[in-house]
Design brief:
The complex is a heterotetramer, with two copies of chain A and two copies of chain B. Chain A is of the alpha/beta class. Chain A has eight helices and 14 strands. Chain A has one domain: Glutaconate Coenzyme A-transferase. In chain A, about 30% of the residues lie in helices and about 20% in strands. By secondary structure, chain B is of the alpha/beta class. Chain B has two domains: about 220 residues, Glutaconate Coenzyme A-transferase (3-Layer(aba) Sandwich); about 50 residues, no CATH class. Chain B is built from ten helices and 13 strands. In chain B, strands 1, 2, 3, 4, 5, 9, 10, 11, 12 and 13 form a ten-stranded mixed beta sheet that branches. A three-stranded antiparallel beta sheet of chain B has the order 6-8-7, covered by helices on one side. In chain B, helix 3 crosses helix 4, helix 5 packs across helix 7 and helix 8 packs across helix 9. The chains are: A alpha/beta, B alpha/beta. The interface between A and B is large, with 56 and 56 residues.
Chain lengths: ~260, ~290, ~290, ~260
């Protein structure tokens, strides 16, 4: 096999991008979700609608934004609305198919912490906070989460719930009256996790090439369940890899520094 | 009715110690020049509010201007933490900073409610979320039609709103375009407002439904070219990404931060002087000179 | 995803008997052609909602399409009463019309709440006003922060929203400019939507913050030039004020109304045919031919 | 005296226009208020800010609009906002100095009816309804009302309160929590009425030239109080009259029919 070599981050971004379908309306978080969303747009999903919380609707950036409100997002958008309108009419209004989030910490039910490590009033690490994530997690039709898998990030118990996943599992979301279905996939540098059909606990459903089940279990702070039928993530195709690398190269050139 | 004046006079006249001050800008059009002038005039005890406090808030907090901060996301976008913000929260330096933490959807609704003259906003949010445990401002109410429980959040109605915009005409009417954020709402929600602009022109030549702040809702208009740098102004200049990444190193330690602020902000007279001071240090950094 | 189709097909497919239908337009861009098609297809038992029902609603009501009307101002602007509307309210002809009467501020908020996915809106209004005595939908609630009593009104969330706009591109993205009214909110609040446009173009060439309805929030886009007449479309044609004043005489009596509707709407196949029919009667009325 | 002759309607419009001051922000109703507001703009108040509920802010129409959303209003405005924004940010937001209304019926406390004559469910006359008036009457800093004075319009008791004036008088508005001060002047074809300083009942404070106190009393359906110091409205000036007539003539030409 003359497979191209690639990094774990590249595999993660490519695996995430594959979950996005053409014409989906995707509310995109900055960083890894933004790279995956734009990769999808540049490969198999040319008519995907990308929305950033800064108010840019149907944006088609040529390079990745460093921040959620870069000029590149505004200049290539179908339209730009105010931030209150974005959260009121477009997100809460139920117009979003996929909310695409990153996270600092995640638990077995795909609840997310981006607020503090340690106690809220005396934090060990003060993280940036909620941003748009709580209501994206609540209102988007479904949610994808992308982050690197480590035992420090995949924790038994979150110090703070910033954005809800499946709460304490089962039909907890429905009982709480949350409009969206919640996280349906967590994409990491090791594989893909999806919530179990009834318990809604995350289980490992796919391993990226070269990664072992034991590695994934070891990088998880709770006892990770593995799906009966564990799949193998297809490696990046030449087109996926070239497109992603070209995107990062353009981004680095445009920003005059190292790519994200 | 907007007075066209200098930024120094506007900040001196319109912002008092202890005021509730919104400096808004969502990546785009962040009012850096106005933030520097607040620092230069040593305003104290301010209650700051901003959806996305970034470097300019790191600077105001680190220089001791703030007693509290209402916010929904605090960081150096694309780079990492705000070290001065963290130092204030984690170690109370230079002064403790009381936090009122909310979400973007909440604050966006809260500014809109403020602009609408309402005491609160209703939204669907915060279910299963830990923020209401730590911020008693976040309440719930029951829909009188469906019985659904919804979040109720207090309006943001600052004493002063501070924003940067592309241009004003000679009467003080202001045009903003591109990513407009919550700036219009912030100005309409506030008792007073300061708008810095790239230029003052004879006619705005705005398209029909453009975002305009008429001169009678603005207190002061100040012409400060490049006044959003290192943020950007669509149609004028791009974001100085290098400054954002350089800031991480400058702000990491109290000493380097204070030295930088003393040299470039406290020892300069206005934003143009600050730019000259910066470019003297970094002659090659064309983008932020 | 918007389908570009004929108005006849769109109305047949998207509007069913008994539906809750918003046809919006605030003097400007009133969807006359779509209203005619609703009449032509003999839709029945509709619950209509419109802030400012005028001639097109007089026509739908007089032709027996409606069972109820939610509104805030019903009249022939600058001319006087809507005779068919009054006949339905005062004498139940051709059928009783149940009214849900509200104010402009209420309905504007209610559409915005509908677009926002909320079951109700909060506003300051209706104090000392008799409307709440006759419309049980208007309730109050107490602000959980200040204790103030405010009005709570149910969202408007129609089955179908029908509007007219200036143009769409070939993908079905829609641009509206000038007096935009509540049309964007109506479309976003509705389950389905029909947008008639003056023309379909290769590119919208819209300014940065223009009012755009992306094709994925619209069900059908139909090219119907002059489809807002006798209302107007900024950039295309002016208001046919003579038609509005002529309507007073046509609609005053049931017989003249029915004869006119039969001849010009029921006996014509589409809006272009209607225009030919009208111009045959009034060859000199250049403005509405 | 070589005073020009003029109609009672012209005197009414001119008297109303004089109450508007330069730079006031005026939320304008269609019809008589619109004529008076634009006359003020064309004479003594060139920088008055005229706002119509259709969303047009700072509009400077060359001819009078027939309807609240004419193209003339949009084309000459400083900006045009959506109708929800108009009612939320601009009216309820407390940005309006003067709400300028017409009326079908009015009572002694300047409460207004524009809904029905007769019982609501079995009306003798079904009027257009509320429109923007209830919240203009509630939220504008103060309110001017202009209508022709007849015993049928100035009634002892309204069949329906569409827009509040001073409710049942005294400090009733304040007790009800209404933000604005309510009606401060009613301008008719006979004279000007203003609320009494404490009872808030309308009293006649000025008579137009040639009108007698008895005429005004006879055209009022309640026992009209007359101010101790009854003033005489100055007759129209040549400029006022010429400007108003030119405005109506331009309007008639533009609309291809009789002027409003």
């Amino acid at each position: 096999m003359a497979e191209p070599t690639y990094t774990a981050d590249e595999m993660m971004t490519i695996a995430a991008s594959r979950l996005l379908q053409n014409r989906m309306v995707c509310f995109v978080g900055i960083g890894l979700p933004s790279a995956a969303s734009n990769l999808a747009r540049l490969t198999h999903a040319p008519e995907i609608v990308l929305i950033y919380e800064s108010g840019t609707i149907g944006t088609k950036p040529d390079v990745l934004p460093l921040s959620i409100g870069d000029g590149e997002l505004s200049a290539t958008a179908d339209t730009v609305v105010s931030v209150p309108e974005m959260f009121r009419y477009w997100l809460q209004g139920g117009r979003i198919d996929i909310g695409f989030l990153g996270a600092a910490q995640i638990d077995r039910f795909a609840n997310i912490n981006t607020t503090v490590i340690g106690p809220y009033d005396k934090p060990k690490v003060r993280l940036p906070g909620a941003g748009g994530a709580p209501e994206i997690a609540g209102s988007a039709g479904e949610v994808f989460i992308v982050l690197r898998q480590t035992a420090r990030a995949f924790v038994e118990k979150l110090d703070f719930i910033t954005s809800v996943g499946h709460l304490d599992g089962g039909d907890a979301r429905k009982r709480a009256g949350l409009p969206g279905k919640g996280p349906s996939a967590v994409i990491t540098d090791l594989g893909i996790l999806k919530p179990h059909s009834t318990t809604r606990e995350l289980e490992l459903v796919s391993l990226h090439p070269g990664v072992t089940k034991e590695q994934a279990i070891g990088a998880t702070g709770w006892k990770l369940n593995v799906a009966a039928r564990l799949e193998a993530t297809p490696p990046p195709t030449k087109i996926e890899l070239e497109t992603l690398r070209a995107l990062h190269a353009r981004t680095a050139r445009a920003h005059g520094s190292a790519a994200a | 009715m907007a007075e066209i004046t200098t930024l120094r006079e506007a900040v001196a006249k319109l912002i008092g110690d202890g005021d509730y001050v919104a400096c808004e800008g969502f990546t785009h059009l962040i009012p850096f020049a106005a933030g520097h002038e607040i620092i230069r005039q040593e305003k104290r005890n301010l209650a700051l509010v901003r959806m996305t406090p970034d470097i300019i808030h790191d600077q105001m907090i680190g220089m001791g201007c703030a007693r509290e901060l209402t916010f929904s996301w605090g960081g150096n976008p694309g780079v990492g933490s705000l070290h001065r913000f963290r130092d204030a929260v984690e170690r109370g330096w230079p002064a403790p900073l009381k936090l009122y933490e909310r979400s973007h959807a909440d604050l966006a609704n809260a500014y809109a409610a403020g602009a609408s003259g309402l005491p609160f906003a209703v939204m669907r949010g915060y279910v299963g979320n830990d923020l209401p445990k730590h911020n008693p401002q976040i309440k719930t109410l029951i829909c009188p039609f469906t019985g659904e429980t919804l979040a109720a959040v207090p309006s943001v109605r600052p004493d002063v709103a501070v924003i940067h915009a592309q241009k004003a005409d000679r009467k003080g009417n202001v045009l903003i375009y591109g990513i407009v954020g919550v700036q219009k709402e912030a100005v309409l929600a506030a008792k007073r407002s300061i708008v810095t602009v790239e230029e003052i022109v004879a006619s705005l030549d705005a398209p029909r439904n453009a975002t305009i702040l008429p001169n009678w809702v603005v207190s002061a208009v100040c012409c400060v070219p490049r006044g959003a740098r290192p943020s950007y102004a669509e149609g004028y200049y791009g974001r100085d990404n290098k400054f954002y990444s350089d800031w991480d190193e400058i702000a990491r330690e109290r000493e380097t931060f204070l030295a930088w602020m003393t040299r470039h902000v406290m020892s300069t007279t206005d934003f143009a002087d600050y730019e000259r001071s910066l470019s003297a240090v970094q002659p090659k950094q064309v983008s932020h000179g």
